[in-house]
Amino acid sequence: MATQGGVVVSASLLLVLLLGACLPAPAAAGVLLSKLPKALAVTASAKSGQVLHAGVDKLTVTWSLNTSEPAGTDAAYKNVKVNLCYAPASQKDRGWRKSNDDLSKDKACQFKLTQQAYAAAGGNFEYTVARDIPTGSYYVRAYALDASGTQVAYDQTGPDAAFDVAGITGIHGSIKVAAGVFSAFSVAALAFFFVIENRKKNK
């Protein structure tokens, strides 16, 4: 009987191990922004409070290795990715825009401006604000990526130095003017027919 009990226990243990092997592994945490070094130096041409108009205005972003970093810091840097990020004022009460220290869960930096090969001398990019960028406050963040595409360093222009984007509402100015003209014409036509009807009644 003892032997049978030992066999039962062993079988149960084996079953548990097999089930454990079949279960998916817990998701690994993403890269934490708070753990990344600010080894890049990033600037943007838009100043704090400046308003850029979507589809019209341009934004120039410049990046380089931070001069305070020791030589060889950027040995693993292969690419630089630049994103446009919602500033805190445009994240309030909007969970789909919230920033997160875990970059795999971050929703603030949704708009990719460019990704270019890293150069020790630095680089820059001129970006015309896309027509689909919503109205809001923004700042720029740049990541240094390693060969696997993982973020290994960063810098950003904000969120304290946020600038604004005036998005396209979908209603062109000329359409508003035309609507106003037609409205005025409709009122005038209504008044004209009202006078005519009154004259007919009086006759």
TrEMBL record:
GO MF, one annotated term: nitrate transmembrane transporter activity
UniProt keyword list: Cell membrane, Membrane, Nitrate assimilation, Signal, Transmembrane, Transmembrane helix
Pfam families per the UniProt record, alphabetical: NAR2 (PF16974)
Protein name: High-affinity nitrate transporter
Signal peptide from the UniProt entry: 1-29
Function: Involved in nitrate transport.
Organism this protein belongs to: Digitaria exilis
Transmembrane regions: 177-196
